[in-house]
Amino acid sequence: MTQLQQHTRASESQCRNVATRITDEVQRICDRSQRIQASAEIENEAKELANKRLQQCLYYFKLGSHQGKVKLHTLLTRIVYNHIFSSYGSNTRQARLDRVDDFLQGFYVEALNNFRKEAKLSLTYSPRSLLELSEYLAFCQRYARRRIPLPSHRSQQLIILRAWTFAQDNPPEIFVDIDSVAEGNSFEAGDRRDPIMQQLRSLLVSTANNLPDTNLYDTIVEEVINYLESRKQQDCADYFILRLEDLTAGEIEHLLEINSQKRDYLQQRFKYHLIRFTFLDRWKLVHQWLEADLDRNLGLTPQEWQSLQNQLTPQQNQILQLQREEMAISAIAIEVSLTPKQTQKQWYKVLKLAWEIRNHSLS
After folding, report:
1. Distance (Å, rounded) from C-alpha 54 to C-alpha 23?
2. Which of 209, 290, 297, 344 is the most exposed place for a label (fewest CB within 10 A)?
């Protein structure tokens, strides 16, 4: 902490926080390292690790915000370009560099999320001062160079493994088809003006103070984040967290360090997962939150409820009644002579129609 105060213009509290995080990180490394634990120089090893991290942080601090980012970006570009992208297809060198930039934007977000997790920071933490930015840039450099064990007693830098995966399987930029969600399909061409999509645009960005049950709101937020992370959609989770802060599109692009095209694609991918969460995986929780559960006739008036039933097929009406009896999907499937997946698809259509009727009455 003393050296941070001597070499930076940061406040005492910022210096203390950074010093504490460095100390905690070093302690974790020493506790987990068999080599260090087996040595007789644990204290010296810890001091050396802490000093290296301190010097890395001060190095980026002296460079300043802009130059520090450029320096790290150049370093990581050189690593992944030489190993992965230098021979990527027959593209020009500039096209390959553009792909490197695309990859690194996602990698920076991944590194920030891991920094939050390892330092036990909030899910919305972002560096606000030059010292905090320098701490993050230094962590990002170390994170990129972590050695990941591979078969045959080999290992590889984490960033190279991530770049290899990116180069092999870079997802195309396509829009969400809401009907394909019920099938569990990947993205296909869809109507971005769909009224359901417009409603989902603001579904999870209301402030907790405007909701009838703030505990349920907190549960919803946590469940969505867990849902996205369990499906390896950390960038969607980051996007969701920023949406909760009611930030503008430009502010989100700045914080995630992406352009408008990538932000638009990320938004479509987030909506795809949000729709699955809303209509399939956790429909009961979401509809309870919206005060539109089955006990409230899916939020419909008596006239709308009758209209819904009139538009359903006999099979869908049967599924609706069995859902009101709180039967499991597997049991309902037997009753209606469908597979569980087919039953779930029909239930999805019921919820979607109810959603359309409800939204139409509000428009």
Report:
1. 10
2. 209
Residue 38 falls inside a structural domain: yes
Domain housing 244: 193-291
Q: What is the mean pLDDT of residues 106-124?
A: 89
Residue 226 CB coordination number (10 Å): 11
**For 150, left (φ over 0), alpha (ψ -120 to 50), or beta?**
beta
Q: How many domains does the chain have?
A: 3
pLDDT of residue 314: 92
* pTM to 2 decimal places: 0.47
Q: Which of 249, 272, 291 is the last residue of a domain?
A: 291
Distances (CA, A) of 202 to 155, 195, 206, 244, 268: 44, 12, 7, 10, 14
Classify residue 235 by burial, with Cβ atoms within 10 Å: 0-12, 13-18, 19+: buried
Cα-flanking dihedrals φ and ψ of residue 231, to 5°? -100, 20
Domain identity same for 298 and 266: no
Contact present, 327 and 343 (Cβ < 8 Å) = no
Give the N- to C-terminal CA distance of the chain in Å, as an integer: 58
Does some domain include residue 185? Answer: no
What would the mean pLDDT of 321-338 be, rounded to a whole number?
89
Quick one: tokens of 34? 């068999």
Average pLDDT over residues 53-57: 89
Residue range 83-101, pLDDT digits in tens: 666 655 546 677 777 788 8
Contacts within 8 Å (CB) and 24+ apart, 242-249 = 242/124, 243/204, 243/205, 244/124, 244/204, 244/205, 245/124, 246/205, 246/207
- Given a cut of 60, whether residue 241 has pLDDT beyond it is yes
Residues 91 and 13 in one domain: yes
